[in-house]
Design brief:
2 copies of one chain form a homodimer.
Chain A: H1 5-13, E1 23-25, E2 32-35, E3 40-50, H2 61-79, E4 82-92, H3 97-113, E5 117-125, E6 129-139, E7 154-158, H4 163-171, H5 179-190, H6 199-205, E8 206-212, H7 216-227, E9 230-234, H8 242-247, H9 251-254, E10 261-266, H10 271-280, E11 286-293, E12 297-301, E13 304-307
């Protein structure tokens, strides 16, 4: 039974993702070699998921693999990029062939689903953690950052916010979620969908974008800071499930993390294009929740304006 | 005092490495954007160093930063690549401004020394570990793998082997190293020099190369396996310090790790070029230790031939 680093890589991690991918040299050498394409730029990101911090110990290996890749894919989506390849650094407390099989199968399915090739990696012994470094491509200078939001831009979010946080709260026993919401919320927690279909839309129409990993309130604040402007958003406009609406539990949508939906800013001139997007993509609807202003950061709640200027999302070292 | 992820990245990790580097978008967005250069391929690698596994808890933060980057640079060197940029994922048990300052200063010095720009990253809370993903470039199709060694090729190694392992053994109290060897061995352990100067030589003359991270014996075996050939090496030819020679302690050079020297195979026709390299690079001498054969894997020790076919270097899951 394979127990050393090289055998683990060979047995579990070769041929993950499209084998006709961009790598001239893939897994099994000191480094991988990838072709770059003229007229494109490379978009790269790295994210680590740690057992007990980013996922609970009882999370299935396939779900861990899925999420580790999905959160990186979500970063690419927010930049307007198309996935190309990724590297994996996997730290495990001990050799466990059943765990590795499930993990590598989950990774393989996810890599196939999003057409992204595993081209290299590293395995170590230690506390369970998964680091994925991903690369995508974007036509030169069409990438989308957080920096170009302008007063008057509409603020849009994809999908529904708060489901993952609610799924986590249910799992922890903090809320008793009715059965009709459970599977959707647990799916949002364990299998967040990176919004890669939005990349083309963002490249064409968005002035700024971010993926919502730490909560809308804090992540939109990053756009405001990077773009040096303000925002006014409306709580009632935030797309949430009916339980959050009924319970007035918007903290799950505003202050909690793990949504991996996209928040973007689009000039109001593009309303027609937004409507066209929504009619063609009912599963990835964009909802306008407010607009970019010169300064300040406010949330309209009924007749009141709540000052969000000191709003903070989830911080890893708080 | 900065304590959250975003402030840590801003305060400690912005502007590390050449600011005129390849990134159009650097630290502070969902991902970084890098320009790719026509006629070049990208060479990418990822390596994780874990506290208590890859370095002892008393290692200085600057030495950890140095080594985390150096081991990745060493992978690039072995492929014949020139460093371009890197991403950092840093996991820390707690916020510690003194540790972070020393770590980021060490990283900055190393990045400057080897002209490699930090363009993005991630920080998490957990057991101390440092993952670096590095990218370099190589003129298209001039990369060097482990696969093309041919019978008759000379087997060469750079520098001196075993010093890092000996430094570690001394630190652990397993050997009493005479004072004249200590500083060199501890330097080899904490500040291994990635042999980037060799990249051009390898591109031009080497049929195969690997960086020696797990011990010569095991790492050369990787070349033999990938190239489907054998080797005969001579123990007396292995470049080691005088203590190893006197003590007949070649296990430090053969079976221990962390050398980060290069082992490469070069056709015997290029003896003149090897000599020219050595006279021009006295600090990065290449020493011939044997030759590639059709099959088998033997070490000459005096009059005897030791069969190394079952030889194994350090394995992370043994």
């Amino acid at each position: 039974m394979a127990q050393d680093e090289f055998a683990i890589i060979e047995q579990y991690f070769s041929n993950i993702g499209n084998s006709a991918g961009p790598a001239s040299v893939g897994i099994g050498d000191d480094a991988a070699v990838v072709d770059t394409t003229p007229g494109n730029q490379l978009v790269v990101s790295i994210d680590t998921l740690i057992g007990g911090v980013h996922f609970s110990p009882d999370t299935s290996p396939a779900d861990i693999a899925y999420k580790a890749l999905a959160v990186n894919l979500s970063d690419l989506a927010a930049m307007g990029a198309t996935p190309a390849w990724f590297l994996l650094s996997l730290t495990l407390p001990k050799f466990d062939s059943s765990w590795l099989s499930q993990f590598s199968n989950g990774l393989r399915q996810t890599a196939d689903l999003y057409s992204c090739q595993l081209i290299g990696g590293d395995t170590c012994r230690g506390e369970l953690s998964v680091t994925i470094q991903i690369a995508g491509t974007v036509p030169s200078d069409q990438y989308v950052t957080r920096k170009q939001a302008r007063p008057g831009d509409l603020i849009l979010v994809s999908g529904e916010l708060g489901n993952a946080a609610l799924g986590l709260a249910h799992k922890k026993g903090e809320v008793e979620l009715p059965e009709e919401h459970r599977s959707k919320c647990l799916l949002a927690l364990n299998r967040p969908q990176p919004r890669l279909e939005l990349a083309i839309f963002l490249r064409e129409f968005a002035s700024a974008a971010i993926d919502i990993s730490d909560g809308l309130q804090g992540d939109l604040a990053h756009i405001l800071q990077a773009s040096d402007c303000g925002a006014r958003i409306s709580r009632v406009a935030i797309p949430v499930n009916s339980w959050i609406k009924q319970q007035d539990a918007y903290q799950y949508a505003l202050g909690a993390g793990d949504d991996y939906e996209i928040c973007c800013c689009v000039a109001a001139d593009f309303k027609t294009e937004i409507d066209a997007w929504n009619s063609e993509h009912p599963d990835c609807r964009l909802t306008a929740i407010g607009e970019i202003t010169e300064s300040g950061y406010f949330l309209r709640v009924g007749e009141n304006l709540v000052d969000l200027i000191t709003a903070r999302g989830y911080r890893h070292f708080d």
